[in-house]
Design goal:
By secondary structure, the chain is α/β, with parallel strands linked by helices. The chain is built from 6 helices and 5 strands, in the order E-H-E-H-E-H-E-H-E-H-H.
Length: 151
């Protein structure tokens, strides 16, 4: 089964890497796609986010990194994806992602599979990581070492 993990990854966190790692063990092929969100302002450009993802995903033979510059459901159809995988930290994440699942299904028939965040990463978000970067804090609790090395 081929799955897609799409997100802004600004920057990729230990929580993102946890979801990617778990998906890589469950599925034959995983595409991690940097996808734009028009409501967000980014700290890192798309190329830098792809570089960060490539650095921490290079350990997985079945994971590729790409850019999704269209609707996620269209990208999935174009790339032969069987399902979308989303990580959930809370009920708020579930409500948001369930809404996106319904929207995606109006575009193309695609299933979304939810993976609950591991407890040690349930507080972690790219927003938190960006704040820690902004104030020069130690990144080891927030970012994969490969990502921290590129910042």
């Amino acid at each position: 089964m081929k799955v897609l993990i799409a997100g802004s990854f600004d920057p990729p966190t230990l929580g993102h890497l946890d979801i990617i790692t778990r998906a890589a063990t469950l599925f034959d092929s995983v595409i991690v796609a940097v996808s734009p969100n028009s409501s967000k302002r980014y700290m890192f450009d798309v190329g830098k986010r792809c570089d960060m993802l490539n650095a921490c995903c290079s350990r997985f033979a079945n994971v590729t990194v790409d850019v999704c510059d269209c609707l996620v459901a269209d990208y999935a159809a174009t790339h032969g994806v069987d399902a979308i995988v989303k990580g959930l930290r809370s009920a708020i994440d579930f409500d948001y992602e369930a809404t996106l699942d319904r929207v995606n299904k109006t575009v193309r028939p695609i299933e979304t599979l939810f993976l609950s965040a591991s407890p040690e990463f349930s507080y972690l978000s790219s927003t938190v990581a960006r704040e820690m970067i902004k104030y020069g804090r130690n990144m080891s609790d927030y970012l994969p070492e490969e990502v921290a090395a590129l910042i």
